[in-house]
Every structure is written in C-alpha cells, then in structure tokens.
Task: structure prediction
Amino acid sequence: MASPTSFLGKLFQRHDRQSREKLPVARKAEASPPESSGTDYSGDQPIRHRDQDRFGRWSFAERVARTLAERRDPSSVVVGLYGAWGDGKTSTLSLMQVALQQHPDSVIVSFNPWQFESQEQLLRSFFDTLAVNLGKSLPTQKEKIGKLLHRYGGILSILSVGIGGVVTVSPGDSAKSMGESLSTVELDELKERVERILVESQKRVVVFIDDIDRLDRSEIQSIFKLVKLSASFNHISYVLAFDDEMVAAALGEKYGSGGSESGRSFLEKIVQVPLHLPPADPVALRQLVFDGAEAALKLSGIELTSSQGEAFVRHYVDGLEPRVTTPRQARLYGNVLTFALPILKGEVNPVDQMLIEGIRVLYPKLYVLIRDNRELFMTRRQERGPNDTRKQQALELITAALAGTGVSTDILVARLLKVLFPRIETLLGNMTYPNEWDQRWAREQRICAEEYFDRYFRYGVPPGDVPDREITAFVDQARSATEAELQAELVRIAGTSGVRKIISKLRGIEDTASVDAVPRLAIVLARMGSLVPRERAMLANDWSITQAAILIAHITRRIPSATDRGALAKRVIQEAEPLFLATECFRWLRKDHDEPEQARIFSQEIEEEMGRLLAARIAAASGGRALYDAFGADTPRMLWFWKQYGAPDAVRDYLRARLEADPAEVIRLLDTYVGTAWGLESGLSHKADFERGSYDAIAELIDPAFILEKLKVQYPNLSGARYRYSGDGEYERTLAEQFAFLHKRAIEEAEAKRVAEAAAGGSQEQDEVAKT
Result:
C-alpha cells in the first residue's frame, strides 16, 4: 500500500484536517511498494497478494473463502459478488483464491467465459476445465474423473436443456454424428460417480467465474444456463462476479415478463448468497489518486510548489473527488495525467491541467461544454456585468452537462469552475476582474487566459503561437550565447510564430529572467525591431513596437550597477533598428517630466547623453532623403527629439534649407503631422484634419510664417478665411488652407494676448502712480 504521507497526502492533511476527519479512517494494512513501480501507465490489473490490498477487502474475501471451504452441507451453493465496473471485483476474487489456498481440501477452478463462441463450446470447455483442475488435486483419480467429466460435458452440450434444468433427449445431426444412444439416465449416472469420487477424497470445489457483465446478452444468458445445470453437483460451489444491474437487465430480456425486475427474479433462483462488494475506503481511494498524480508528475519532470500542491489537493477534494468511487476511476485519472502532463510540460499551468483532465475523465459532458463554449466560461470583456438571461442560460447548460453525476450545479460551480474560470463569477454574480488579471493569468499560464485556453484542449501550442519552452530556452541561452547566436535564434523563432508573440511572452517574465541574460536580450531585441509589426488600429497604434520598447526598458532597469545600466542603455539607443524603435526606447528609458523623481532610471547626465546619441542618429539620417519622406508619420517625434537634444537651431536650419530648395516639400512635411481618423461604424481609417496641436508642434521647430510663405508658392490665393475640413476639395489644398487658417488664428490670439497684457500693464502703472 502506498504511503499515506506522500507529498500530496501531507498537503491534504495540513490543508484541510476538518474535511479529512469527516471521512472514515483508512483500515491499516501491511506496507508495500506502489502497484506500479515503472514509468508507464498504471495497469488495470487485479492484485494477487494480501499485502497489495489498499482498500480493506482482505478480511471480507478471507471470510467468504473460509465459509465455502468449511461448509458441512454437501450441496452446491452459488455466491454472487455484486459490484460496479472497476470497483475491484476481480481483485477480491483473487484474494478469495489466496485465502482458499490455506485450506488443502479446497480445489480452486477459474473459468474464463470469454473464449467460447457457442453454447456447445461453453459447456464442453467448462467440464474439461473442471476435469483438469480436479485431476491436479486428485492425481490417482485423474484419468477416471477426467473421462467422466469430459463425457458428461459432451453429452450435455448436445442435449436440449431447459432453463429449469430439465434435460431431454433431442437427437439431431450432432447426436447422430456421435454414433451413440444418448439418455438422461447416463447423465445422472455420470454425475453420481463424480460426486462419489469427491466425497471419498473429501474435496470441495470452488468455481470462480468473473467478468460476466462484460459479455453480450446472449452470452450472459448462456453462462447462467451453465451454472443452473452444473450447480446440481454436490461438493461444488460457485462464486460469480458481476454488476447485478447489468446482468439483471440482460436476463430480463430472455426470461419472465422482461425488464430488470424479471431478470432479478431469475437471479434469485440461481444465486443463493448475494453479496455486495464492500465500498472502497474514501481515504484509500484519495491516496490512490494522489499516488497516481505524483507518479505522473515525476514522469513528466514537473515539480509542484507547496502552494500549487495545496491548490490541487483542495480543488480535487472539493470538485473531483465526489465522482471517484472505484479504484478503476482512480487509476484511470492517474493514467490520463501520465499521458497529458508530459505533452504540455512548460506550456500550461500544471494544476489547471490536472483539474481540467479530471473534468474530462469524471465529467465528460461538462468537459465538452467548456471546450466548445469558451465565451461562456471566459466572459468576453464587452459582455461583463450581470445579465439575468445569460446567467440562466449558463446555469441550464451546466446543469444539463452534470445530469446523472449526482453533483449539484451550485457546488461544482463554486468549488471548481470558478477556480478554473474566475470570470464566470462576472456572469453568475457581481465579482469583476480588471484587465490587470489577464496579464497575471497569462504569466501563470492559466486556462482562463485567452492565449492559453486552446492549449489545454489541443494538447499542443496552436498555430501562430510560440511555445513557452522556446522562450524559456531563449532566455537561458542569453546568459552565455553570443549576440550573433542569440539573434539567429530569435530569427528562427520569429520565423514561425512572429516577434509579437515573443515580446508578449518575454514581458511576462521580464521581472524574473536572470540578470545575466539582460544585456544580450536588450541588444538583440533592439536590433530586431524590423521584425516587429507596425499596427495601425483605432486604439492600438504600434502596440507591438511600444511593448518591445517597454520590455527593453524594464529589463535594462534590472541591471544593478548604474554604470553598466547606463552603458547598456546607450548601446540600445545607438543600435536599435529601425530608428523609430530607438526613439520609443528612449521615451521609456528617460524620466518623463510629469513623473516623480523616483521613477528615474538614470541620472540626468546619462539621459542627456542618450538624447544626444539619438539626436546624432536622426541628424545622420537627414543627410539622404528628407526625413518626412523616409519616416512618414514618425517624423514629428524624430524632429522633436533632434531639436531637444541636438545642436541649437539644427532642425530649423535643416527644414529651411530643404524647403528653400524645394517649396513643394512643405506639404509632405505637414502631412506627417496629420493624424488618422477611424469610422465608428465602418471601422475604416482615413486622414484626419490638421489641428492646432500639430500647428503648435511645427511652430516650435520653425517659424510658421516661413511655412506659410512656402505654401503660397504653390497656392498663391491662400486666404485662411475659414477652416476647411478633410474631404472638402483636393487634400493638399485643404491641408494648406487648414494651416493658413490656424496661422491666422494664432496671430490673432497672440495680438489679443499682447493687447491684454499691455492693458493690464497700464492699469498696474496707474495704480502705482495713485499710490505714490
């Protein structure tokens, strides 16, 4: 018997003593190794020895065996051992046979009813098997009793046998082929001679027939006809093991008025001693599950933390254990874990996987419901909040899936489903989970995380995703590999799954990755920005490249040495590609003006140095194509950084030179400052309007009057009298008119402000004079 103080067993005792005390105390038994000491699945094999008994069946088996062996009444008796499939009937029969071996006058006969296709074969083989076993126990009578039983079975297999045991001669082709005259008188004589031999030898025969409930209905009927005929032998008893419900239904079709009740009435005529198998001890069943789970974890190379182990124990006992009622179910669960855990090792949360596999085995309809209705259990964000109709529909679906399990919907939802899918609480109750929980669940590889749900049911990583194990290996490789090797590995992973997923996965471990890996990770990620997609969406422009920059900034701040941290940050600014990624990295590495001082990663001097490096790269890029032609919508940010950290007036001089040489470029410059608008109904994008914020941004770089002057080279009649909206004529002309209007408005506002200030100044001067 496996030790009740295994890892999971100890956690259970520590976690929930109160629940443990409510269960019956396990019977004591001799210690023995676990039933399966190998590294494969636990075989569903019956036990063969008393010391393997972990469910306390030995005393029961020994008591039945002793009664059969010591009976003084010579008449036959038929014992029925009733129990559900997987409840341990075969193991209990084995224990009975072990106990009978202690009685030298007992002859044990095991008859397998699975090997015979016809009733004739069944009858012949049964008596041949009986003859062989009696011959072994009665060597001096071996030849004689063998001939008698063989002859008896041969005759019986040919004659017409009624269900009441009445035998009549019915000569047919088989009888004629024997060339003999058959009669019931000879059967009675053969029977008496066999019984005389048994009386003289003082032997009692016990015949064991197992797995009757696994036969088809006609075969079940044949077996009970056989027992009815042969049970008339004195000194021969029978132990039949089967599920009485199934067998009663099969017999009811043949005998009586039909149905289980008729079948049970027939059973009562044959089985004189009906015994129900003692139920398996709940504590022992639980330990069998825990032993199987630990074996599966060990085979998979998975080590649960103490908190993970406690979580599994609690949720197993609360939600899965009510359905584990037989040893076969307990072993089946362990075998399923042995199959599933290695496949998804490192790709999912092991506790969640163990629980969802338990649902698959013990609540199969619920498993299908979850698999095919993720929106019901995940609760889409836009559908959050109580909804009576959806709540009722959900409860009806879950209740239907639990039909026949004997477990209530309320209990299973509260104790298991809410554990696996917390947001079902949003649907069924008032609990809500902010978006931050999605990130936490993803880090923990939970089944309730959008990107992990499918893994639990596909037994693999879906197409387009990236295996977590590859990310772990990539981070480990960053501790010692060269930057070139690491860059090649990143290209390989990105080639099948894309950098977007890699960045998302790395963000989940940015706080736990080894500091030794940080420098190479930061540089390689900075260099590979060209692989990062540039999204254009209503609420998620450049989501991936922003996440990449945040990732680089967050892992860089983990460098403990300020000198090393600053050196790495400067390398990132110098080597990040494309240039836009360098600007985005700088944005997240520097302290923003509205952030508190404690948010600073670097000294002011280091930040200034990084800014100058970035400005130098932008200035170098300006030597070829115009920045606004080369970088499009990224231009405003680059010009701002260049002005902020580059040489004084460098941006102004650059723009003046370009626009003096070719005034037509002014429209292309302004175009980069125009945002994108999105249709609320269509979801499609289109050019927005040139707004005051964009005008002010340009005015910080160069005199807007100069811009207007160059615009008038192309559009001499710019009036700026009204603000023309996009779609109101040619785009370039509309853009020029919008700038002209905003410029005129800015001049008017400046003049109004000057007048107001002058008036305020004059009033103040008069007050001073009056005071004097």
Observations:
- Residues 18-39, 160-182 have pLDDT under 50 and may be disordered.
